[in-house]
Write a structure and sequence with these properties.
It is found in: Cytoplasm. The protein has a 5-stranded mixed β-sheet, sandwiched between helices. It has 256 residues and is an alpha/beta fold. The protein is globular and about 55 Å long. It starts with a strand and ends with a helix. The protein has helices at residues 33-41, 71-77, 102-115, 148-157, 181-207, 220-230, 232-235, 244-253, and strands spanning 2-7, 12-18, 21-28, 63-68, 83-85, 119-124, 127-133, 139-146, 212-216, 238-240. Residues 9, 69, 99-101, 103-104, 125, 127, 129, 144 line the site of pantothenoic acid.
């Protein structure tokens, strides 16, 4: 039994593995140093700090595998007894550049190993990223832009009159030509983001007509639902899967 921890820019994503089998996953906020120390010293569920909201098992897995894109958080977790931090060199993708995010590399590896290459992964997280590899598992490249939440947050924070829009408040598509401030912000951000995603997908299919596409990240469901309404032909070829990074980690385990 082993624990995997993905440290994102907004929160922590956990997975419990039994051998190579992904048993369960859950999310928590960032944890304070005191809680991490307590976790490191716990041996059974009963000792665990409540913030961890740990699921079923009664003994704690001795091994923690970390994939992090937040160096300050990685440093905090180094105190855990049997910790393994995944680095880019361990990922068998070719043509990767040294500063590529480990989350992007792992998600792409996990998706490609599961469904095959060429593969394009769209991560609708804090940042929205596109990351692609060709049939020979060479990184084709990708793109990084502010994610949905970040686009709303910057507008709210860097202007004098614009309110903060919460992604939780989004349900149906806003009117394209809006007659209120809140809907105007929603329209601007959502329609341009979806048009941008569509444009990247079409460019991907120009390169690789049979190329596969997977979408992950905290905003995956919202964006996928909007894509189904606006561009159903595109949505029908997308696979929605939140756990690509954990699949990538599991695929590495058998590799090393
Ligand atoms: N409970 C939640 N807490 C925070 N964000 C959430 C939550 N549920 C959905 N989201 C959405 O998820 C997005 C963040 O995505 P995600 O949780 O994948 O980020 P992350 O993994 O921390 O960051 P990274 O982009 O570094 O991977 C936000 O834009 C937000 O709208
Ligand atoms: C782009 C993010 C923030 C997405 O989580 C992460 O993958 C990262 O910090 N990447 C480093 C830069 C790059 O991937 O080119
Ligand atoms: K940064």
């Amino acid at each position: 039994m082993w624990l995997a921890l993905e440290i994102g820019n907004t929160r922590l994503h956990w997975a419990l593995f039994i051998g190579a089998k992904l048993d369960c996953t859950w999310d928590t906020e960032y944890l304070p140093e005191s809680v991490i120390q307590q976790l490191a010293q716990s041996h059974t569920l009963a000792d665990l700090p409540p913030e961890i909201s740990f699921p079923a098992p009664c003994s704690l897995p001795p091994l923690l595998t970390i994939a992090s894109v937040v160096p300050s958080q990685t440093a905090l977790w180094q105190t855990y007894p049997h910790v393994r931090v995944i680095t880019l060199e361990q990922i068998p993708l070719k043509n990767i550049y040294p500063t590529l995010g480990i989350d992007r590399a792992l998600a792409l590896w996990g998706a490609g190993k599961t469904w095959g290459f060429p593969m394009l992964v769209i991560d609708a997280g804090t940042a929205l990223t596109f990351t692609a590899a060709d049939a020979n598992q060479y990184l084709v490249g990708g793109a990084i832009l502010p994610g949905l939440g970040l686009q709303f947050a910057t507008l709210g924070q860097k202007t004098g009159q614009l309110p903060q829009i919460e992604t939780e408040s989004l349900v149906s598509l806003p009117p394209r030509f809006a007659l209120s401030t809140a809907e105007a912000i929603q329209s601007g951000v959502i329609y341009t983001l979806l048009a941008g995603i569509k444009d990247f997908i079409e460019a991907w299919w120009q390169l690789y007509p049979e190329g596969k596409i997977a979408i992950k990240g905290g905003d995956r469901t919202l964006l996928f639902n909007y894509l189904q309404i606006l561009y159903p032909a595109i949505a029908s070829r997308l696979t929605v899967e939140p756990n690509l990074i954990f699949w990538g980690i599991a695929a590495l385990k058998s590799h090393v």
